[in-house]
Specification:
The complex is a heterodimer of chains A (226) and B (425).
Chain A lengths: L5 E10 L6 E11 L4 E5 L6 H8 L7 E6 L2 E2 L5 H10 L1 E4 L11 H10 L9 H10 L15 H13 L5 E5 L7 H16 L4 E5 L2 H5 L3 E6 L2 E4 L2
Parallel strand pairs in A: 3-8, 3-9, 6-7, 7-8
Antiparallel strand pairs in A: 1-2, 1-4, 4-5, 9-10
Helix pairs in contact in A: 3-4, 3-5, 4-5, 5-6
Chain B lengths: L1 H17 L1 H39 L3 E6 L9 E2 L3 E5 L4 H10 L3 E16 L2 E10 L1 H6 L4 E4 L4 H5 L4 E5 H6 L10 E4 L2 E9 L6 H7 L6 E6 H7 L3 E6 L2 E6 L4 E6 L5 H15 L5 E4 L1 H44 L1 H9 L4 H38 L7 H27 L3 H6 L2
Parallel strand pairs in B: 3-12, 5-10, 7-9
Antiparallel strand pairs in B: 1-13, 1-14, 2-3, 4-5, 4-8, 4-13, 6-9, 7-10, 8-9, 11-12
Classes of the chains: A alpha/beta (226), B alpha+beta (425).
Chain lengths: 226, 425
């Protein structure tokens, strides 16, 4: 049990007070072991984004416990959550979310800036990761000069730079064509084979099939699917 | 840590350069604010210097005693035709001062009176000043041609004079005035020096006992004493007036500036003893300077305060633009927060940007300040004195402005909700 990378125990999320209170997630339970590749599927309005935000420590659950690497982060402070996001979690967004004014290399190095005190360095690793995703020849380019697929690969390298225990991908192929999307998914599969724990949120069953396990989110409730 | 600061600085610089027009407009308030503060400070320093020079001419260690006609007179004698006036400082006063008042390094008597200067049949009203030769030096009376009066002239009781150049113009003098013989009153004096026609300020005029309308003719005191005496006869509407003023002025030089005020009191006591009427006045350049200085200080601070207002406006401008910038970069802030930036990182990032803008604006402002100072100096004929301290102060203020006015937008940025920020735009 304590070996799980993440565990949700009765996690609820509600917005508003009193009469205006809306509960979006109703008592979720989930466990993900290290090295798993899990796809969370659900239609829009199912609370996917809300769940993602909680998993990614961008938001706190209203109730329940969220154990990340054994620690309950549900009541962590803003600073503590920021540190978790920086060191334990790697984000991959649908729209890449690269910073336009920075070069490819600088983008990958951004998480290094926010490391906890006394954890400098890592510049070497950034370059290596870009090499792994096949972008060594684009280090000094700006995101505007890259294709969608290339941008996403930069985002993947960025997500890995601080050696996270969990990679969270939100519709990573959503803005890509089939071919490029497939390339990106292959990259993710490669990471999985190398031992990374990946949680992928998608509405596309074809994408979900690439993961080892699928969990369905419907009306704020989780159900194992495959 | 140092690496992080360097990175922040370089990033801020890059963002600045990325939008050159906007950055310039943002910094403009600070540029002019700093520029005017520097110009005002330079002007103030220049004013002070001019003030000092003005009073320096009269000598800050000098106490100037002038004879003046008393309002009430006790010793006048009046007949139907003659009016006898006798007032003012005397040679006895001179002796008493020299002998009894301590801490004095020099005492100079002056006898001045109105006289007519003649050339041919033309006559012009002038004032005859009988002075000690070193008096001319003390009051900066320089001969532009020829020479000033010397101790040798005094010792030899020579009938020589140094004259204001424009007097000859008024007399319709043709040819070379130097070396010529000038009739002043009833005596002839050889012109050995032409003095520059320098405009004197009212205060200086009063202190030096110089009329604004007439020109002066300086002769050695010793010569005048021997030859001409001190009595002045004037005719007025049929009756005649005879005025006897032994000394029109005594210039007392004190050894140390600190003793000036004390010496003034002592002089007052000495003179009060032998003068019944108030037939003299005491002019103290040091006092006047101190007074003027105080007024000037107020003016200086007022100028700087006004200039600082523009700096304030500049700071508000920075805050304003920064708020807009933060809104523009909401997405970027969301991304950075998602990647683990803590609130203080965001604050640091934006605060660095505002500080870099304001400091660069300050540097530019210093250059503008230089320009403004020289323009003002040319216009007012004061000098513009820019000290390293004023530059340092201006730069510190501009940096401080960036920090103070950047704080609000930076905090705004840091307090953004990352989730909402990521969805922005």
């Amino acid at each position: 049990m304590s070996a799980a990378v993440l565990a949700l125990r009765g996690v609820t999320k509600a917005y508003g007070e009193g009469d205006a209170r809306v509960e979006v997630l109703h008592g979720l339970d989930l466990e993900i072991q290290p090295g798993e590749f899990v796809a969370i599927m659900g239609p829009s309005g199912s609370g996917k984004s809300t769940l993602l935000n909680i998993l990614g420590c961008l938001d706190r659950p209203t109730g329940g416990a969220y154990l990340l690497d054994g620690e309950d982060v549900a009541r962590f402070s803003d600073d503590q959550l920021s540190l978790i996001r920086n060191s334990r979690i790697g984000f991959i967004f649908q729209s890449y979310n690269l910073i336009a004014q920075l070069t490819v290399l600088e983008n990958v190095k951004v998480p290094l800036l926010y490391r906890a005190r006394g954890h400098g360095g890592g510049a070497q690793r950034a370059q290596e990761l870009l090499h792994t995703v096949g972008l060594s020849h684009r280090l000094t380019h700006r995101p505007s000069q890259l294709s969608g697929g290339e941008c996403q690969r930069v985002a993947i390298a960025r997500a890995l730079v601080n050696d996270p225990i969990l990679i969270l991908a939100d519709e990573p192929t959503g803005n890509l064509d089939t071919k490029t999307g497939a390339e990106v998914l292959e990259l993710l599969e490669g990471l999985h084979r190398a031992g990374s724990t990946i949680v992928l949120i998608t509405h596309d069953p074809a994408v979900a099939r690439r993961a080892g396990r699928t969990v369905r989110l419907q009306d704020g409730r989780l159900k194992e699917a495959s | 840590m140092r690496e992080r600061v360097t990175q922040l600085f370089l990033l801020a610089l890059r963002n600045l350069v990325g939008y050159p027009l906007r950055s310039l407009l943002t910094a403009l308030g600070v540029v002019f604010g700093v520029g005017s503060v520097i110009a005002m400070m330079a002007l103030g320093a220049g004013m002070q210097q001019a003030l000092l020079a003005e009073f320096g001419r009269l000598g800050l260690r000098n106490i100037i005693l002038n004879s003046k006609k008393p309002a009430t007179r006790k010793k006048d004698v009046q007949t139907s035709q003659w009016q006898f006036n006798r007032y003012g400082l005397t040679r006895k006063d001179l002796r008493q001062i020299t002998e009894t008042v301590p801490g004095i390094s020099d005492v100079l008597p002056v006898h001045a009176r109105p006289e007519l200067a003649w050339h041919g049949s033309r006559k012009v009203e002038a004032t005859l000043h009988a002075v000690q030769p070193r008096h001319m030096d003390m009051f900066g009376l320089r001969a532009i041609r020829g020479r000033a009066l010397t101790d040798a002239d005094a010792a030899g009781l020579r009938r020589v004079c140094a004259v204001r150049g424009s007097l000859f113009g008024e007399l319709g003098f043709q040819g070379e005035p130097l070396g010529s013989s000038l009739l002043v009153g009833r005596e002839y004096y050889t012109v050995v020096g032409i003095l520059e026609d320098e405009p004197l300020l009212d205060y200086q005029r009063k202190a030096m006992n110089v009329d604004s309308k007439t020109k002066e003719v300086y002769v050695p005191y010793a010569t005048m004493n021997e030859r001409a005496g001190t009595k002045i006869v004037t005719r007025r509407q049929g009756s005649r007036e005879m005025t006897d003023i032994e000394l029109s002025q005594i210039v007392v030089t004190v050894e140390r500036e600190e003793d000036v005020i004390r010496t003034v009191e002592m002089l007052q006591r000495v003179l009060a003893r032998s003068h019944e009427d108030e037939d003299y006045e005491i002019v103290v350049p040091l006092k006047e300077l101190t007074l003027r200085r105080k007024t000037q200080e107020v003016l200086r601070y007022a100028l700087i305060a006004i200039a600082s207002i523009s700096l304030l406006v500049g700071g508000i401008g920075i805050a304003n633009i920064m708020l807009a910038t933060v809104t523009e970069r909401t997405r970027e802030i969301g991304i950075r927060r998602a990647l683990g930036a803590r609130r203080r990182h965001i604050v640091a990032q934006f605060l660095t940007e505002t500080t870099v803008i304001s400091t660069l604006g300050g540097l530019l402002g210093v250059a503008v300040g230089f320009g403004m100072s020289y323009l003002l100096a040319a216009w007012t004929s004061w000098s513009a004195i820019i000290t390293p301290e004023s530059i340092l102060l201006a730069l510190t203020i501009s940096m401080g402005t960036g920090i103070v006015f950047g704080l609000f937008p930076a905090r705004r940025a840091a307090l953004l909700d990352p989730i909402a920020a990521l969805r922005h735009e």
